[in-house]
Amino acid sequence: AELFFDEQMNRLPAKWREEVQQAAMTTDFGQISRLVEEIRPQHAEVAALIEKYLESFDYTAILNLVQSNRP
Question: How many alpha carbons lie under 13 Å from residue 1 in its C-beta half-sphere?
Fold first, then answer.
């Protein structure tokens, strides 16, 4: 499953990943929610995973997800 999410994250624009990283670093729940909604149509699984982390306020997990997949 982890490899699947790595591949999915690599398909997301670098700018989007940077915006999520910045929002997670500042614990901006609303901004992360908006960013998740942007990708939901094309990347439902990634959106659901980030949303799960967000619902439990696990900003570290969100950071790990977006940072581990930088080109």
Answer: 4
